[in-house]
Amino acid sequence: MKRRALGIVLAAALALPAAAHVGSPNVIFEGTAGPYPVRVIVRPPGVVPGLAEITVRVKEGKAQRVAIRPVRWDTGLEGSPSPDVARPVRGDVGLFAGELWLMTSGSYSVHVEVDGELGAGTVIVPVVSAATERLSMSPYLGTLLVALAVLLFAGAVTAAGAAVGESVLEPGSEAGPGRRRAARWAMTATAMLLAVALYGGKLWWDGADAQHERRLARPLSVRASVTVEEAGHRTLALVIDDSDFRQGRWSPIVPDHGKLMHAFLIAEPSLDAFAHLHPVRLDHERFAVDLPPALPAGRYRLYADLTHASGYAHTLTAAVELPPAVPGAPPRTGRLAPDADDSWHVGGAAGEGKAVFDDGFEMRLVPGGPLHAGREVELRFALYAAGGDAAVLEPYMGMLSHAAVRRHDGAVFIHLHPTGTISMAAQTVLKLRQSGAVASGSSALPPAALDALSGHGGHGGHAAAGAPVVMPYEFPRGGPYRVWVQLKSGGRVYTGVFDLQVEPRG
Ligand SMILES: [Cu+2]
Fold this sequence. Notes:
The protein has 5 helices and 29 strands. It is α+β, with helices and mostly antiparallel strands. The protein folds into 4 domains: 13-134, Immunoglobulins (Immunoglobulin-like); 142-166 and 177-215, no CATH class; 220-347, Immunoglobulin-like (Sandwich), CATH 2.60.40; 349-419 and 460-506, Immunoglobulin-like (Sandwich).
């Protein structure tokens, strides 16, 4: 029996999938607040309302004051609580920590202001506030409460019997048969009354539990299927199968890195085939994309990243079966012609942290010590040209690198960049909203705002020539993970596949 423990006890929590990830709710942002390079981590509470934990690391420049405030997407700064000053963490120069209440579900941002010797700087970190957890009562507490209830029940019944049967007797005298019968009646009536009260209590409890259950964030459901066209092309079709979405109760989908949808396909259970595709929107709820002939037939897991005009970003997932590719099918043209930014890789993980490509290029995982769940880590990768020189990296869809991270069993999936776990589109949208370029409360974006999203602006970090690309992350739990890292050089996207072992928390 799992029940919401009425906020009395915080025991084991069951996480359900929601938001722009699967099973990885913490937000890590790496970027700048004005002149200050910062890393911001937001640990959302998983319940609404709830207290989010925020840490801000100012990596350069002496910061005197860091202030944080939660801003709902539709209220703007003026409708938000006044900023809280984050406290400096003793013994860790440049690290500030604080907590913020997220009062409702939906798209939020944490507005961070840094003041110090270089002046003032601000940055906006998108956060999805969603109830994702149903707290369960620990068996120990449950047993204790049941034992106490039995004791109280028995006590109340005994007390009622004693009150009727013995309270008016002289000390030392025995109750007569009539009085004993009356006492038994009193005890029976009390027991029945208490039973009715208990039943009422159970109904109320179940009602509260069901209400919480209904408020839990559910990912939009998506159906995926593949059809083989006459010319031999395979079309992956996606239908967002959700009545709220169909009826327009979600704000419009906005492009991220210039694409409305980023879809990842990962072969299950082998994980030995991977694709990063960009489906085209056919109508309000239908998307489609041509499948690269190189992807072998079999069962796949689809992850589709979407960002809304509210800044709400989430990952939709579905299972899909791929039929075999038809040999000799001509390259596809027309509306479903392959996107130049589509990429894929067939093959297992690189041995010894070194992925070798057919043109002699090599991608290496730069070791950074053991990985522990629940701790900030930096995943570093470097690309070398044939001959061993560091390759000159080019942005791939505006970012220096993209990575898909999946726990082998699928319990965790996240799309990472050097900027961390956030959706860049969500950050842009929320920034526009706070700047007043979008009327607060309006769910749609004006064309000028959409322009800002469809470009391939180079916001994806930069690396000194030869320096590894760094992607910050915090693994939510231990276990075996696979990472597909995508770096671009000389017009080619290199996908390196690496297996990582993450130690459990503690
Ligand atoms: Cu990406």
